[in-house]
Design brief:
The structure holds two protein chains of two kinds.
Chain A (H helix, E strand, L loop, with lengths): L5 H32 L6 H17 L4 H24 L8 H22 L15 E3 L4 E3 H23 L1 H11 L1 H6 L4 H27 L5 H16 L4 H21 L4 H15 L13
Antiparallel strand pairs in A: 1-2
Chain B lengths: L1 H27 L6 H6 L2 E7 L6 H20 L8 E7 L4 H13 L5 E4 L3 H14 L2 E4 L16 E3 L4 H16 L2 E7 L2 H14 L5 E8 L10 H6 L4 E5 L2 H13 L7 E6 L2 H7 L1 H4 L3 E4 L10 H13 L7 H20 L4 H10 L1 E2 L6 E3 L6 E2 L2 E6 L11 E7 L17
Parallel strand pairs in B: 1-2, 1-3, 3-4, 4-5, 6-7, 6-8, 8-9, 9-10
Antiparallel strand pairs in B: 10-14, 11-12, 12-13, 14-15
Classes of the chains: A mainly alpha, B alpha/beta.
């Protein structure tokens, strides 16, 4: 097909970055929980889906989207706290596969419960009125809502960075991730730290689900597809590295976008090809610490 | 050349899979030969459909309406008092799963007939099993291949439309009205490929210019990387051949990208359930085909009766397109059973071939050579204003009356006269 102009390539690149922002937002919670707790949270996709449904439910009750932006992460985060306290905490110190299996099973339970409560059929989720339509970004038209998602992702990342790097509680979290034993000896209640990290991780997942709802509607299985992509992002970026997840998320977005331009059939495979290449060259991913899994 | 090589190989692989699958099923189930009980038991209709996955919404409607056909048959006294029963299985939109489930239905559940499927690819897998076992299969989803001599068998019936028929109706309407520059966005599997082939064929008469066919995998959740490319092609018409959740998402995202401002979006099939799940915004103004819309009840008494029976059974809900197919697929088989006075396969086949029926959408009949149901195609447009109720989502803008001339000829399909 002819018609490859500079504008098209630039727009395509931008579409890739925008898609990458969604990957980043989703993967960041996964990476945070793994990096701090070494829990591979297979229920992350389910928390994402729950976020979308909580938003949907609030809108049905007459809430507005802006209120949801605040309330959804809080509600999903509280739910995450309960899950950590009741289900995951007893499994610490038992090897990485115990919480993995637990969260895997939990994701099925959550999806099934939502199917029972809301039905198997999907629901529409309208883009908030003020964010509808496309705007000219210089090289072509781009949906305003996707620009908003990029902005929201940036805000979440900035907030997370400030929290981890600039607050004393963030310092404890980082220390706890590096060496929980010493932190415990210093008189810090590590289990409380882990509880809060898990809550934050799931809150971000719920937030991501809410932001994704106007892009694709709401359906119980919506967390499934994105989970695979998020694992690619986490692995490429380095398990547990937040900076790595950001870089890898954007990179995966751009790779998908550029493959879509030249060989759309290959777009889905391309991210796994990227992962394979990265794993061959750098098995721990971009910024991963070697030996975290062992 | 490649075609010659590829064809026999694919058949033998299929056969290998079904045979292997059969072996497993037989090994797993204890032989229970109980002829006496089988004689008195319910008439069982196996119903494999993709209850979970991207087409789940539509599949659930198929089941609902299929149950209605069974209930009506039973209420009318069944076959001399012998009742019918629907045995529903989830094929997960996967040909392998569907083949296994169908084998199970035939071997273990001892179903008398199979009706179902909601995928061009999956129905061929089901058909492979049923045709080898000599069980009647009435397919209720779109496929061109199922009419062709290579896949067809005398046990195979096709109540649904086929892509040739559907794309023909929509193409003839749209190409005459909206322009000649056409771009395609297509789900990368049999359904999508057959639709594009159909559109290009009918497009020849209109000198349509094919700007390109962009293919996406089945089950894509983000189309944002494909849309800028399509917009750069500046098409008059964008023809999107996908289904279920893919259709919901792509129409939503195409709307967000502003595609509709410059381009008329058409789809070979617009699904009622998808339109409801995606909301009016996403589908607004999109034109496509369908086999059934409840709104034709002003025209046909059979539609009115079907709508009323359905909404009575399901708290005022109205039937959808794929629901109607589930109803039609089951009802034709059961009416044939009644006419034949037996569940004997040969007698039922003869009775189905003899049917001239009008059960839900006006007159229909099965063409002798390929058992394709000859029927009308509706061209519809999605509404976003003046909706009278939840189900008032489309407007019928044109109708292709039932006509064998709109189908490929028996000779084209490889059937000997």
């Amino acid at each position: 097909m002819a018609g490859l102009s500079f504008d098209l390539i630039a727009l395509q690149l931008f579409a890739g970055l925008a898609l990458g922002a969604i990957y980043v937002l989703f993967a960041i919670g996964l990476s945070l929980i793994f990096g701090m707790l070494t829990v591979v949270n297979f229920a992350h996709g389910a928390f994402y889906m729950v976020g979308a449904y909580v938003g949907l439910y609030m809108l049905m009750l007459g809430g507005n989207f802006w209120l949801c932006l605040v309330a959804v992460p809080v509600i999903v985060g509280l739910f995450g706290l309960a899950v950590e306290r009741i289900l995951i905490r007893p499994l610490y110190g038992r090897g990485i596969d115990y919480p993995l299996l637990l969260t895997f099973g939990l994701s099925y339970v959550m999806v099934e419960l939502v199917r029972i409560a809301f039905g198997k059929t999907g629901y529409p989720f309208d883009t908030p009125e003020i964010l509808q339509g496309a705007v000219n970004i210089g090289v072509g038209y781009f949906p305003l809502y996707r620009l908003f998602v990029i902005g929201a992702t940036a805000v979440v990342l900035l907030g997370l960075w400030l929290f981890l790097e600039k607050t004393s509680f963030g310092l404890i979290i980082r220390a706890g991730a590096r060496d929980p034993q010493i932190v415990r000896v210093l008189g810090v209640d590590v289990s409380k730290v882990w509880l809060i990290v898990f809550g934050i991780g799931t809150a971000i997942a719920g937030f991501a689900g809410l932001l994704a709802a106007p892009l694709q509607g709401v359906i119980p299985e919506m967390g499934g597809t994105i989970l695979a992509e998020a694992f690619v992002v986490t692995v490429v970026g380095g398990m547990g590295s937040i900076g790595g997840a950001v870089l890898a998320g954007l990179l995966v977005g751009v790779v998908v976008s550029m493959t879509s331009l030249f060989a759309p059939e290959m777009a889905k495979v391309s991210i796994f090809a990227l992962m394979a290449v990265v794993l061959i060259v750098r098995p721990q991913g971009f910024f991963g610490r070697a030996g975290l899994m062992s | 050349m490649t075609r010659k090589i590829a064809k026999p190989r694919s058949i033998s692989r299929r056969r290998l899979l079904t045979t292997a699958g059969a072996g497993v099923a037989i090994a797993a189930s204890p032989f229970r030969i109980n002829l006496l009980r089988a004689e008195e038991a319910n008439i069982k209709i196996g119903f494999p459909v993709p209850l979970t996955g991207p087409y789940g919404t539509e599949a659930q409607d198929q089941v609902r309406a299929g149950q209605l056909a069974v209930a009506q048959f039973n209420d009318a006294g069944g076959l001399n008092g012998r009742k019918a029963e629907l045995v529903v299985r989830d094929d997960k939109l996967n040909p392998g799963e569907a083949a296994t489930r169908t084998l199970e239905l035939v071997e273990k559940e001892k179903v008398n007939f199979v009706v179902g499927s909601l995928s061009a690819a999956v129905q061929l897998a089901i058909n492979n099993v049923t045709k080898e076992r000599g069980v009647i299969f009435n397919s209720i989803s779109q496929s061109d291949a199922i009419n062709e001599a290579a896949d067809f068998s005398r046990f195979t019936f096709h109540e649904a439309l086929n892509p040739h028929l559907t794309s023909g109706a929509v193409g003839r309407y749209a190409f005459a009205k909206f322009g000649k520059r056409v771009a395609f966005l297509t789900a990368d599997y049999a359904y999508g490929h057959e639709m594009v082939r159909g559109f290009l064929e009918v497009g020849k008469a209109f000198n349509v210019e094919n700007l390109g066919d962009i293919r996406h995998p089945l089950g894509t959740s983000d189309f944002s990387t494909l849309l800028p490319r399509i917009q750069a092609l500046k098409p008059d018409i964008l023809c999107i051949s996908n289904f279920g959740r893919d259709q919901q998402i792509v129409l939503k995202q195409a709307t967000d990208f502003g595609v509709k401002k410059t381009t008329q979006i058409i789809a070979p099939l617009l699904s009622h359930a998808s339109r409801v799940a995606a909301g009016p915004q996403a589908f607004d103004g999109v034109i496509g085909g369908c086999s059934f819309y409840w709104g034709i009840e002003d025209k046909f008494a059979s539609t009115k009766a079907f709508n009323q029976a359905f909404s009575k059974m399901y708290d005022g809900k109205l039937p959808t397109d794929y629901g109607a197919l589930g109803y039609g697929g089951v009802r034709t088989v059961l009416e044939a059973v009644k006419n034949a006075g037996s569940v004997d396969t040969d007698k039922v086949i003869a009775a189905m071939e003899a049917l001239k029926y009008d059960y839900y959408k006006g007159p229909q009949y099965y063409r002798k050579c390929d058992h394709q149901s000859v029927q009308s195609v509706l061209v519809i447009k999605s509404k976003s204003t003046n909706m009278k109720n939840d189900a008032d989502v489309f407007e019928v803008i044109s109708t292709d009356e039932p006509n064998e001339a709109n189908l490929r000829t028996c000779a084209e399909l490889g059937h000997k006269a």
